[in-house]
């Protein structure tokens, strides 16, 4: 008997089995899984461009929010166009035109061996740090610098928190801080998103008159005083410590300090 006839025999024998037989049950289960996974894969591929657009939109909304420019119903793209994105070299604190600022991917850069460094001293627990980041400059009607929005990230208790800090043009006064991505516990570490806690950052200062970095996020105010202190999150000591460490890391010498010195010297 030919192989084709043998196969026909197998198919016929399979079709003749009772509906609730084990081979038919397994066959149906496998087919359901296959068809289901094809739908999920097709949806994931088809929706990826929309996800990318939404991610970009969310980032822009967060930058607008931290700079106090977001209102419900605002045209995000139009409002965001007020910002001048510039790629900043952290070590020199100077802008570079080596990359296109509109499309530079800070997060991809921090895992690129060519563009990032492995950290020995790593209080923010990020492992590697990109040598380049995107800064967002906001200018007033006269073209003078009004605010600068800088990205920062670091580990909390369960997750890396990604956010932005908005500074006044003097490079020392904080206008706002907010995180746009993290996986801390709702009601505990996730209270970093609570508008009441976020509002505590407005008007705080990074460094004292001697240029010493004093900002802290702790339960009790440090000797430097309330101007440099943001209250800890209740019941979330570990997330708070993460935020304290990441803010101090990014605002310190390994982070934006060279850029902030240039800002204060009026070189931007
Ligand atoms: C399920 C669960 C989730 C928690 N999530 C967080 C969190 O997101 N951030 C945090 O700092 N602590 C979290 N904690 C609490 C910490 O384990 C720890 O008790 C807390 O940080 C101590 O804060 P306190 O000294 O302010 O009470 C969580 C605890 C449990 C049991």
TrEMBL record:
Principal place of residence: membrane
Any one GO molecular-function label of the UniProt entry: FMN binding
Positions of transmembrane segments: 26-47
Catalytic activity: a ubiquinone + n Na(+)(in) + NADH + H(+) = a ubiquinol + n Na(+)(out) + NAD(+)
GO CC terms, sorted: plasma membrane
FMN phosphoryl threonine modifications at: 237
SMART domains, per database record: FMN_bind (SM00900)
Bilayer disposition of the protein: Single-pass membrane protein
Residue span, FMN-binding domain: 156-254
This enzyme's EC code(s): 7.2.1.1
Cofactor(s) needed by this chain: FMN
Keywords for the protein's UniProt record, in alphabetical order: Cell inner membrane, Cell membrane, Flavoprotein, FMN, Ion transport, Membrane, NAD, Phosphoprotein, Sodium, Sodium transport, Translocase, Transmembrane, Transmembrane helix, Transport, Ubiquinone
GO BP, sorted A to Z: sodium ion transport
InterPro entries per UniProt: FMN-bd (IPR007329), NqrC (IPR010204)
Localization (cell): Cell membrane
Pfam families per record: FMN_bind (PF04205)
Function, in words: NQR complex catalyzes the reduction of ubiquinone-1 to ubiquinol by two successive reactions, coupled with the transport of Na(+) ions from the cytoplasm to the periplasm. NqrA to NqrE are probably involved in the second step, the conversion of ubisemiquinone to ubiquinol.
Binding partners and assembly: Composed of six subunits; NqrA, NqrB, NqrC, NqrD, NqrE and NqrF.
Family per record: Belongs to the NqrC family.
Protein name per its UniProtKB record: Na(+)-translocating NADH-quinone reductase subunit C
Gene source species: Halocynthiibacter styelae
Organism phylogeny: Bacteria, Pseudomonadati, Pseudomonadota, Alphaproteobacteria, Rhodobacterales
Gene: nqrC
């Amino acid at each position: 008997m030919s192989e084709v006839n043998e196969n026909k025999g197998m198919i016929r024998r399979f079709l003749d089995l009772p509906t609730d037989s084990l081979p038919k049950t397994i066959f149906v289960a496998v087919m359901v899984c296959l068809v289901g996974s094809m739908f999920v894969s097709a949806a994931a591929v088809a929706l990826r461009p929309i996800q990318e657009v939404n991610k970009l939109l969310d980032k822009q909304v967060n930058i607008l929010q931290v700079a106090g420019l977001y209102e419900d119903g605002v045209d995000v793209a139009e409002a965001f166009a007020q910002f001048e994105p510039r790629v900043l070299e952290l070590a020199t604190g100077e802008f570079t035109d080596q990359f296109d600022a509109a499309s530079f991917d800070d997060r991809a850069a921090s895992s690129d061996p060519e563009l990032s460094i492995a950290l020995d001293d790593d209080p923010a627990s990020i492992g590697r740090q990109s040598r380049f980041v995107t800064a967002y400059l906001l200018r007033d009607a006269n073209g003078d610098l009004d605010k600068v929005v800088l990205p920062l990230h670091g580990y909390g208790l369960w997750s890396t928190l990604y956010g932005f800090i908005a500074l006044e043009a003097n490079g020392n006064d904080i206008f706002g801080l907010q995180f746009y991505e993290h996986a801390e516990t709702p009601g505990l570490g996730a209270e970093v998103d609570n508008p009441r806690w976020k509002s505590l950052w407005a008007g705080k200062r990074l460094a004292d008159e001697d240029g010493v970095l004093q900002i802290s996020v702790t339960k009790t105010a440090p000797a430097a005083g309330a101007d440099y202190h943001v209250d800890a999150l209740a019941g979330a000591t570990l997330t708070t410590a993460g935020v304290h460490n990441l803010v101090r890391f990014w605002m310190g010498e390994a982070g934006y300090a060279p850029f902030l010195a240039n800002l204060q010297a009026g070189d931007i």
